[in-house]
Amino acid sequence: MISQLKEKYFSKYFKSDFSWNFFSMMSGTAISQIIPLCTAPIIYRYYSQNFIGAQALFMSIVSMLLGTMTAKYEMAINIPDDENEAKKIVSLTNFVSFVSALIFMIGFSFLKSFFVVHYQISNFYLWLILLPIALFFSAIKTTLFQWFVRKKKFRMINLSTLVQAGIPNLIFVVFAFINPSENVLLIGYVIGALLAGGILYYIYQKKNDVKNNFHQLAATAKKYKNFPIMQWPANLLDNISSQIIIFLIARYYGIAAAGIFSVGLKYVNVPMSLIGNSLSAVMTQRVAEDINKTGDCRAIYLKMVRKLFIAGLILCLILYFFSPWACTIVLGAKWRISGRYIQIMCLLYFSKFIANPICIISVIRQKQRYILLWQSTLFVLSTSAILVGYFLYNSIQVSLFIYSLVYFAMYSIDISMNYRFSKKNY
User: What domain count does the chain have?
Assistant: First the structure.
């Protein structure tokens, strides 16, 4: 039915499958981002900055460890032409994710003193239960996201994304009037992750008769060993670099400051994700297709960079001039400072908006050594930026400004390098 509607009503507007796929992904992403915007005036008036900060810290742990859960094997799903080979990669990645969840649960249990002393976590054992659940089902979603991108089944991805956005926010709003607490924010988030990953897994299993033995999984793991060897450390460093700021702000400036910062970060991701994540999904499929056919993907690279530059510039100008006002009106006066933090970080958001969709080229080209070097440099510089701001100036705003400059410089390098990788036989 969708294809018939496309042919009848949208064919004159979407001249290529790429444009249609982008529209499909963006529409689903848009709805999922509108949901938290609609609930924000309630959530941020009833839940304290400390509660929001604790949730931000929990989500940062999940985001930081998520890339390690799969050993990055999911990035190989779009590479082979043979579909059975791709299914083996999916099975391998899900198995690795399950083992990783168990390992992290055991490891986290030894960190009770650290989190209680430095981050004032009073409900540590609830965190211990929820963390592996969130990690495992988030990893399942990450893996099957790549599978459904390969199959161009973007409606399945949209369904999962909508569930993950809608259910937790419904829980947050209901309990805002009953008993707003840190536990509600944590449990609601985990329920969303569980349902989002569970839905994709159910659909995948229903449509695919997958039977793999241990020897097949071992052979697949060996064939794509460069992903855990080179891509996994790079991704871990990337996740740490992007999430360490929440840990450092919570550690040196307090859990409430982390909550204030995370709110600004979350709502900047609404317009950025609306376009950026949708482009990333369809770009992965298109780049892999072009490289397999011609060995060159410069055309799609240049097309995307031009569009992303214009869109990113417009979005960041809006963010810079209107963020403090918007945070005050939508979230309440106590969140105005979040808008100020957004202004300071605009250079980071602009460069990240351009770089994220096109950096998939270096992954598909299997330039793991470059990725590892880039991520290692970013990790050292970004961590140093926060520490310099604290120890030399004792100012969170200085820390954020230096942090933003570091990211702008590193993303500029990445954009340039991915153009080189887009060339034939590079």
Answer: 1
